[in-house]
Design brief:
alpha/beta; 6 helices; Rossmann fold
C-alpha cells in the first residue's frame, strides 16, 4: 500500500486548517480593524491645524510619562507646549491638565501644573484633573466634573483620533490639535497599542458605558483653577 508523500500531507493539512479555521481567525481581526477604521474616520474630521481651530472653553491636555525627577517626559512636554500655545493664541481660555495622580509616588497632574506656571500661564486658568487614568475617564470627567462643553484636545497624532472621538461620543464639542514636535522613542509600540485601544474604546463608549473611578462635586471650568489644586499648593 503506497503512502502519501509527507510534503503533500502537510499541505493538505494546512489547507484544511485554513478552510475550517480561516473564518474563525478573521473574526478577531475584524473586531480590531473595524473599530480602528471607524474611529480614525470619525475622529480625523475634527483635527485641525492650530490656526484653523475654533475658540473653545479649554484645551484638554492629556497626561503622559513623568521622569523620576518630576519633570515631564518629551511626549508630555510637547503636549503641554501645544496647549500653552493654544492659550497664548486665544484659542482657549483655560487649560485642563489631566493626568494620573493615583498614588503618592507618581504625579502627572502636578508636574503638568508646575510646567504651565513656569511658562507664565496665570494660576487661575490652570485646572487639574488628578484622576485622568484613561482617555475615557478624562473626557467623562471633563463633561461631568468640570462642565466643559467645547474643548480642543491635545495629544500626539497616533492618539488624537481616539481622544477626539471619545470626547464627542460623550457629548463634548471637541476638536483635535496635534502635539508632535519631534520623533519619539517607542513610536511603533505606541501605534500597535493604539489599535487595541480603539477596539476597547468602542466597547466602553457604546456597550459597557462604565462610570469613572472618581467623579466628585462639580468644579466648573469657568471658575478659578486653583480650586482643583492640592491643598498645600
Amino acid at each position: 500500500m503506497c503512502s502519501m508523500p509527507l510534503r503533500k500531507q502537510w499541505w493538505l493539512t494546512a489547507g484544511a486548517v485554513l478552510l475550517v479555521g480561516g473564518p474563525l481567525l478573521s473574526v478577531p481581526a475584524l473586531a480590531v480593524w473595524l473599530p480602528t477604521r471607524w474611529i480614525v474616520s470619525a475622529g480625523s474630521r475634527h483635527v485641525r491645524p492650530m490656526g484653523e481651530l475654533p475658540r473653545c472653553q479649554a484645551a484638554i491636555v492629556l497626561g503622559a510619562g513623568v521622569r523620576p525627577s518630576g519633570r515631564p517626559s518629551a511626549t508630555l512636554a510637547d503636549r503641554l507646549d501645544t496647549g500653552i500655545d493654544l492659550y497664548r493664541a486665544g484659542r482657549v481660555r483655560k487649560l485642563l491638565l489631566s493626568g494620573d495622580h493615583g498614588r503618592h509616588t507618581y504625579d502627572e497632574a502636578n508636574a503638568m501644573r508646575r510646567y504651565a506656571l513656569a511658562e507664565g500661564v496665570p494660576p487661575a486658568d490652570v485646572f487639574l484633573d488628578h484622576a485622568g487614568f484613561s482617555t475615557y475617564e478624562t473626557m467623562y470627567r471633563a463633561r461631568d466634573v468640570f462642565r466643559v462643553r467645547t474643548a480642543i484636545v491635545v495629544t500626539q497624532r497616533f492618539h488624537l483620533d481616539r481622544a477626539v472621538y471619545t470626547a464627542r461620543a460623550l457629548g463634548l464639542e471637541a476638536w483635535g490639535c496635534e502635539a508632535d514636535r519631534r520623533r519619539y522613542a517607542r513610536a511603533f509600540r505606541n501605534e500597535l497599542r493604539e489599535v487595541l485601544a480603539r477596539a476597547k474604546a468602542i466597547v466602553w463608549l457604546h456597550l459597557l458605558k462604565p462610570r469613572p473611578r472618581y467623579l466628585g462635586p462639580a468644579i466648573p471650568i469657568a471658575g478659578d483653577g486653583r480650586a482643583t489644586w492640592d491643598r498645600e499648593d
